[in-house]
Amino acid sequence: xxxxxxxxxxxxxxxxxxxxxxxxxxxxxxxxxxxxxxxxxxxxxxxxxxxxxxxxxxxxxxxxxxxxxxxxxxxxxxxxxxxxxxxxxxxxxxxxxxxxxxxxxxxxxxxxxxxxxxxxxxxxxxxxxxxxxxxxxxx
Length: 139
Description:
about 0% strand; 2 domains; mainly alpha
């Protein structure tokens, strides 16, 4: 149940991000907005992580560092930067549902690279996401 609560809080955070990104990119370039948001994020998140976990949060193996490096590339370069650009071009209402289709990528990668088997509910969810994106983009 705690995981669901955290997921809902994450959804609120991502939704607020799109809203504030739209406000910011009305007055600056998306790339500038990404830089500011990343600096603030690193300072706040880094402080919280070290406060919660102490020095143990900095003890990582090379494989963990490599995977986190790839996570950073995908999330911050592939995600945040392109999200800010999309918000500036088509607005929050149209870009957020498309960005929200990210579970399709996660499911596809999990099936292809991790050997996970999709269930009927996962397939139905994926189809629902595709239909939703088509509806949003058709306006």
